[in-house]
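Entry: Cytosolic carboxypeptidase 1
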Amino acid sequence: PRQPKTCFVPSNSRVLMLLGQLERLNREAMLADAEIGRQITAKILHLIQTQGEKSTKHILGYTMTIYLLEPFWKGQWENNSLHYVNDRCVCVPGGGRRVGVFVSKGGTGILLQLVLSGSKESPPSEELMLQLHSLLAKVGPKDRKFGVKARLNGALNVTVNLLKQNLQNHKLLLPCLQVLRVYSSNSVNAVSLGKNGVLELMFKIIGPYSKKNTSLLKVSLDTLGALLKSKTNARRAVDRAHVPVLLYIYQDWHRNDTRHRHMLIRKGVLGCLKNITNIKLGRKAFIDADGMRILYNTSTECLPVRTLDPLINTSSLIMRKCFPKNRLPLPTIKSVFHHQLPHVPAGGPVAQLYNQPLGVDDVVDESDDNDDVETENDTENEEEDKDHHARNDDIETDINKLRPKETHSRPFEELKIYERFFLELSEDFQVMQDRHPFVSLVESSTSKNLINIVTFHFKTRGGGGGVNRHYRQPPLLAGGVAAQQGGGAEETLAEEWAEEEEGGEGAVLEVPDTALLLPLHDPDLYVEMVKSTRSVPQYSEVAYPDYFGHVAPTFREHILERVYGVQRTKIFQDIERLIHPNDILDKVVYDLDIQSCPVIDDGESLKFNSQFESGNLRKAIQARKFEYDLVLNSDINSNHYHQWFYFEVSGMRVGAPYRFNIINCEKSNSQFNYGMQVLMYSVQEAISGRPRWVRTGTDICYYKNHFSRSSIAAGGQKGKSYYTMTFSMTFNHKDDVCYFAYHYPYTYSTLKMHLQKLEALRTPQIYMRQDILCETLGGNSCPLLTITAMPESTSNDQICQFRNRPLVFLSSRVHPGETNASWVMKGTLEFLMGSSPLAHSLREAYIFKIVPMLNPDGVVNGNHRCSLSGEDLNRQWQSPSPELHPTIYHTKSLLQYLAAIQRAPLVFCDYHGHSRKKNVFMYGCSLKETVWQTNISATSCELHEDLGYRTLPKILSQMAPAFSMASCSFVVERSKEATARVVVWREIGVQRSYTMESTLCGCDQGKYKGLQIGTRELEEMGAQFCVALLRLKRLTSPLELRNHAHLLDVESDLIETRFTSPVLTYVLEDEEHSFMEEVDYSAESGDEPDNDPDAADPHDNRLSDSESNNHRDSLT
């Protein structure tokens, strides 16, 4: 039988008895009985040592009590006790918990008191000081108040004096340095130590290469590095010319440590340089000491040795910080184009933008937060001091704002004008049976914008088979490229061109016949649509991909596997520009700021163009023979939002290794770091029968560069930098014309063409009506679609069923750069207009109201996020202006009208694209899940809500391979209170109000795991959304409810989510894993938080979209 564990009780009782005797002796201060005290303490120590591992907590408590009995700190007892604490509580496997107990019992305070008491002896006991400092070096890091205690106790000065007196005593010097390193984690201590000359002491210890005392040198460098984290100490080091000394030491160790046995010493020197260069003076001193060249050369020599990667990474970080900050090579960071608004709100972004004095928005931010007066706070530089719940600060905590409004904000009389958009709710079909329920969007009048189509011809002379670009005077349509399809006049135009061509010999290239593959695409119809599209720059060209169309490739496009070290290589190539400036061409080859002649063609460089619908490229600069820096244009009436690009390249050489750098990206991270590739469209491939966008590019990476963002463009934040997205590629066809894009382009004219083609799919059984919801600021029409099934007859029952179908309201493309949203919408529209039984059932189940493009102006003009008002339209839903935000104002009015007549939609969904996460997922709104993520105390009555909001996403996760339920979130954030999802949920009362986010990259789960997403998958997602709606309808019917109750009963899912993963539903952090190589590119000791709109929340693509202060960019 197992014996009861009572063996320790007698011993413990005896220890307590003996401790009582010591306390009495201490209280009576009987110095004559000191020998008795030593005998008692010896017995206590013996008993403690024999009690075994299971009473460690009691042992520590006893030991602390003994330490407090100062009269008996005599003879060998102190050493025995210190040895015991070290052997049994610190230097044992898994001793971390024991050290924690030791600290909680006041152990560090006792040890510091011992240090102070021991220092009063003359001379101090070397053995005692050695043991005390050895213990403090191990225990100190576990005590968050260690630095404060040491300073207040006086032990800080004791250690410094001991250090100064024992510079040659390496045995005692080592633990003293280790303790100083811990002391220095407190900023006040670090400043105090610097004032007391500890920096100079460190430079007496460290030195050139030597095989002796390497452990001491390593600890000295670590201590020096900790001291130099203080800005005051960093300035002191600069003033005393220590930067050249550190560079010399690093060079010497690099030169002599040929077997790389002392990599930690070399890394320690770099750590000191890294901390010094956190201040502007340090960076200047580094440059003046030729540090860039030194670190570049040493790093280059380290590249072949993989184990030296930490040295290369730290060197790269230092060089990136010290790379002189430059302004973008632009006359102004404001957009090249400007649109006059009907009125400019005084406090709005446009007023702020254009009220700035000339040049103010472009000034390089020379401020340096590290040069500010140092704030001496008694805080340790430990990550645990940060509140790990900071990421949830944006969650809405006001329960009143988490409940739907009970009153409507607008009187019904104002909303009655929107009745004309809901004819289906009053239609009796008695006199409408032959009426065409479709209103064409195409205007018969000639557009103000004249179109210039580029023509293709073979160069047959000399055997060269290339493509030439020639511009016709408007209004020629499609010229030679349409000859095969158009015939007649177009063929004559092609013949005329051939006669004008020098040599007179040429063959007209044919437009690929894609009618069977692209039933909704018609090149001639596209040109007609372009005629009625109005752009601020008054574009007069059509891009080939938009004219030819896109046929999704049949092959799979895998997420690009990252080559190890590729980002480091790119960064080193950038650093070479500073070291070898004479190798840089710096030749401008394309510049929209010179609008009279943006293309600068010298016959030696690539030719660029972006002057077509949705195009975005502002400037191209040839840096090297095959390397080009590209600058994107800001959104119109804005000075930022650089992400979307779409441009043309020609004049390339076959097989040449071209590198393209987009140098003014703003996000702090991108899926380009996680396997996403750019898209390319080759005209030569298209005319060969393969008209398609393909993922392309190698050596793709995304990293912070040396171009400074002004605080005006960065929302008031100082010290922000732009980022570079770089990719390399070779071209396969001579004289090809290629297009590059951020994602699959989908223009406003494409939408109008698709809507026209969809009309051809209408059958007598389909009710489809297209209205003009409003006109945009730029004069473009915003279409509103109504799709449902025609009633089977004109009987009252059928008409009643028709009118009482629940409504589903869909919208898309409020952010122009999220083109994937339009492809998803295309899939939805094609399914709704299809002839399948499912489509027919869906039309019979619902009335669909669809705004397929909420921001036509932004799409047309190549914006990434804003409309012509210079504002993010998805932040205007609370109080939209009818003049500045007409599409949002009238769309919200439609929903308000429906709420007023008690016909609020069953489902509202706004299609978006997500730039920093994979898969397709949804964001919804839930009172309960939002409260669960906060510390709000609320009764169960207050948290009551129908859990049906989770049903649709759950259905999608079971049927759509690209959809991820794990990425969905139903938390309401303060920063999202003016978005469509939250406003429709709160003000209109739509429980199932969603944002559906589609990745720009690819999937990491399901059927498409490891694949980049394409238009086929996006359109499929749009169709599957429709099927999910049909299933939702069936599930909520009484007959089906019993068989599918598991989809509606999600309370258990919520409880499991709540208790197993508290932050699972609040997805703000980037889901990507870090790469093997990492580096912090910040110019300061702590990186800045990311305040771009995408980063602000799950809805808008927060990578961490809240960045931690020490955000690290991958270097691989």
